[in-house]
Amino acid sequence: MEKQKKELTEEQAFTRLARLCSTTEYCRHDLMRKMQSWQMPEGAEERILRRLEQERFLDEVRYAHAFVRDKFRYNRWGRQRIALELHARGIAPATIDDALTEISEEDSDQTLEQLLRAKLKTVKGKNDYEVFLKLLRYSVGRGFPQEQAHRCLKRIINTEEYE
């Protein structure tokens, strides 16, 4: 049984999206994906997005800052992963750079160290070097720069020989 796509008027779609945006931050990309499932008249999507921006329901800068705070604080992602995700959502590079200033170097180091200390308890390896490499890959996968991960790992594991 195929589900019937619901047809919405432009005003109904605007009201629905305005309600969504008043509770959570969204970007243009997210809202466009929502509207694609609705059968909208030609050009209505762009008009709705412009109106949402004019009435301040939609703000890409505000979205980028909220995204950076949330992904760093709750998901514990690094700057590189956050920047990549924002870029995938069509956020301008200047806006991404501005939003990433919310993460201080000290907070980033502290978060990475906490992640690595927790991960170190579960990582198995034949020797210290193998454990070191696994933790380095884990850090980079979380979006932290390799240099920062290397520096942090040297503090956690006494690994001067891995330079």
Descriptive report:
The protein is mainly alpha-helical and 163 residues long. 67% of the residues lie in helices and 0% in strands.
Topology of this protein?
Blueprint: H1 10-23, H2 28-36, H3 44-54, H4 60-75, H5 79-88, H6 93-100, H7 105-120, H8 128-141, H9 146-156
Helix pairs in contact: 1-3, 4-5, 4-6, 5-6, 7-8, 7-9, 8-9
Sum up the structure in keywords.
9 helices, 163 residues, single chain, mainly alpha
Strand content: under 5%
Question: Helix/strand/pairing class, anyone?
Answer: mainly alpha
* Number of E-type strands: 0
Number of helices: 9
Q: How much is the average pLDDT?
A: 90
Q: What is the overall silhouette? A: elongated
Indicate the low-confidence ranges by residue numbers.
Answer: 159-163
> How do the helices and strands follow one another from N- to C-terminus?
HHHHHHHHH
The helix content is 55-70%
Largest sheet: none
The radius of gyration is: 21 Å
End-to-end gap? 60 Å
Could you write a compact summary of the structure shown?
By secondary structure, the protein is mainly alpha-helical.
